Amino acid sequence: MLLLEDITSVADFRDIVSLNTLKNKFLKDIKNDTDEGAAYLQECFLSLDTKKALNTFVITFYESALVFIMMHEIGHILELDDQTCEELNIISSQSEVSLQEKKIKAEENADLIGHIYSNEYVGEPNFFNMGPILVVLAISINRSAIQIQTDHPSIKNRYESVESKIFDGKNPMDIIHTRKLLYKMNRELQNEGCWNDEDKNWWMNMIGKVE
Question: What is d(CA 76, CA 71) in angstroms, rounded to the nearest whole number?
Fold first, then answer.
């Protein structure tokens, strides 16, 4: 619904939506933890084809996020194997000298492997694979020191890495709309107090920022 303004040409949605009905449904949702308000809006505004498409997107994002998580963990094993590293075009963490550098490189490789396999899961080359970026955002919720690197890359660095990958080879106009979506989504998370004051706007960068 964040991009409702982009998918409907209706200037005054009161011609379509009964505000009284919507209010009552939202009040019921708050009381009973249901989603009738959102379902009502979708029924009013979205065609059957659009609803099918949205359902496909949600399922794909959720499943690609799970693939990213699983393959990240398996990636910790794969990135230690020379043949696998050659096939995936990555440099093993074993090449690093210090223990801290090894750990950081191992996490970067695991994220990269997770992204490669979740991207293959999505299949459609023109489809934006949002799974990895949703995983990193979930990790960031109620976490402190988002911008600080320890023996792991900072959450900010991990976010920027997966963010840049989802745009690789995509249509410029599609990238603009996806940047807009990410900006709105992160702004809403920030407004909900998901991050500490010192990490305010940590997600805003030259890759994803939209004025």
Answer: 9
Comparing C-alpha atoms, which of 208, 199, 204, 201 is closest to residue 165? Answer: 208
**138-186, pLDDT tens digit by residue?**
999 988 889 999 888 999 999 999 998 989 888 898 888 888 888 988 9
* CB 208, CB 165: distance < 8 Å: no
Nearest to 162 by CA among 113, 126, 121, 195: 113
Residues in the chain, total: 211
- Per-residue pLDDT of 1-55, as tens digits, reads 444 444 444 445 556 677 778 778 888 887 888 888 878 877 777 777 777 777 7
Residue with tokens 């410029």: 172
For the chain, the distance separating the N- and C-terminal CA atoms, rounded to the nearest angstrom, is 20
What is the C-alpha separation between 38 and 19, in angstroms, rounded? 13
Q: How many CB atoms lie within 10 A of CB 181?
A: 17
Among residues 109, 134, 115, 112, which one has the least CA distance to residue 67?
Answer: 115
Alpha-carbon span 158 to 165, nearest angstrom: 11
